[in-house]
Amino acid sequence: MAVQLPFLTSTNFSGLFNERFWQNAWPLPPQNELKRGALVPDVALPGVGLSDRVRLSNEWKKQPLLLVFTRIFTAHQYCPLCYPYLKTLNENHETFQGKGVAVLVVTSTDAQQSEKVKADMALKMPLLYDPSCQVFRKYRTGQALGAPLPAQFLIDQEGKLHYKHLFSFLEPNAPLERLFQEIDALAQGATVTTAA
C-alpha cells in the first residue's frame, strides 16, 4: 500500500488564498538579530484544546523552552520541508521531556485549521496558532509565498535566548542533533562552540 503524504498529494486549496496568504506573499528574509543571552519577546497565544492563552514566560519559568515556528499553509497544505520536521520533533517528544525541555509549536493557521493539523499529525506537543502572524513578525522569522518561514528558538528559564535557527535553503530547520547539543549545553551552563 502506498503511503500518501498530505503535503504532496493534496489538491484541496480551500482556505489557502486568504488575508494571511496575501500579507505573507511578498518574500522577506529572516531578520531576527537577537544574540545569545538577549531577552526574547514574551507573548500569549491561543492553543488547540486549551481554554486559556499560553504565555511564553509562564512556560519558560518552569523549564527551558524550545519554541518552534512552523510553516503550514492550511489544514490541507503542509510545507514539504516542515511536515517531516514536525513528525521528527513529535517522534522525539519524550526525549525533549526527558531532557527537561518544553516544546511549543506555533503555526499561522487559524483555530479550525490548527485543530485539524494537530489531529491529523497526532501531535503530542501543544500547537499554538497565530493567524495574524503578529508573533512570527515579533520574532522576525521572515515570510514567503503566503506563509511565514520556520524558525526555532531555545529559551532559558530567564527568558533569554540560548540558541536560534532561522530558515535558509541549505538548512530550513535546525537539525535534531544540534537541538540536543544545545539543550545539553544549556543544562550544563555551557556554550556549543560551532557557529549558530
TrEMBL record:
Name recorded for this polypeptide: Tlr1289 protein
One Pfam match: AhpC-TSA
Keyword terms: Antioxidant, Oxidoreductase, Peroxidase, Redox-active center
InterPro entries with a match to the protein in the record: AhpC/TSA, Thioredoxin-like_sf, Thioredoxin_domain, Tpx_Peroxidase_subfamily
Keyword Transport on entry: no
GO molecular function, one term: peroxidase activity
Source taxon at top rank: Bacteria
Species of the source: Thermosynechococcus vestitus (strain NIES-2133 / IAM M-273 / BP-1)
Domain (Thioredoxin): residue spans on this chain: 34-188
